[in-house]
Amino acid sequence: MPDRTCIACRNKGNADVFFRMVIGPAGDIVCELGRKLPGRGAHCCFDMDCVSKLISSNRLEIALKRRNFRIDSDELLQNVRMLLRRNLEGMLIASKRKGVLTFGKEAVVKKLKLSIVGKPFVSKDISLKSLMNLKRISKEFYILPFTMNELGKFFDRKPIGVLFIDDVLLVNSICLRLIQERAIGDG
Predict the structure, then answer these.
(1) For residues 67 and 100, what is the distance between their CA atoms, to the nearest angstrom?
(2) Cβ 121 vs Cβ 142: under 8 Å
(3) How far apart are CA 147 and CA 159, in angstroms?
(4) Segments in the chain below pLDDT 70
C-alpha cells in the first residue's frame, strides 16, 4: 500500500496511522479510517498538534482543492473519537466471532498462567483491587475506553472487566487504535 502524508506535519506512513477527511455530500468534512469514501481525501496524524495546525491553517482547503468551508475543531475531533471507538468495538466483536476472546478474571488468569500468546485488556472502570491482582500476574495489559457495562452490552453479557485476546494481529490492531485514541484526547 502506498504511503500517505499528513497534511499538517508532512510525516509519511501507512494509511492506518492517519485518519482521512473528504468533502461530504452536504459540503461538510467527513472523517474516516481507511479509504472507503469516494472523492479527494486528505490525511492527518492522530496528534493534537497536527489537528490544531490543520484547523488553524488553510492546508485542508488546499489539499481538498475546495475553498471557504468551515472546520469545527470540536466536531472534527468528536467524529474522529467516535470512529476510533466504533473501530475498537468492531475489533472486539470480531475477536469473539473468531473464537479468540476470553471473558472474566479467572479465565484470563488461566490463559496468562498457561503463557498463551495474547494480551489482557481491562475496562476503564475496573476496580483497583482487580487491577492490582492482574498486575501480579501480567506486567502488560491495556485499558480499553469502555466501561464494564459497555463491554457487557457488546457481547450480550453481564458487565465485563477483563478480556483476553489470543490473536496477535487483532491485539496489534487494537493497540494501535488505543494509542491513536489516547493521542487524540478524550475531549
Answers:
(1) 48
(2) yes
(3) 8
(4) 1-2, 69, 186-187
